[in-house]
Amino acid sequence: xxxxxxxxxxxxxxxxxxxxxxxxxxxxxxxxxxxxxxxxxxxxxxxxxxxxxxxxxxxxxxxxx
Length: 65
Description:
It is built from three helices and three strands; from the N terminus they run αβααββ. By secondary structure, it is of the alpha+beta class. A three-stranded antiparallel sheet has the order 1-3-2. The longest helix has 18 residues, at 2-19.
């Protein structure tokens, strides 16, 4: 399981590095990862202090630091 989440974290990092800030739904559509895996990958990257998470209205936006 940690390999799956680690790989997903890499996919997320690469996407955010190339495209910039994105919502969870944008990440799900763009990366084709399921919602649970996206959330786990966000947790992984947040634990490593590589993300900022901010609310814009009712939408959570994720970006690299």
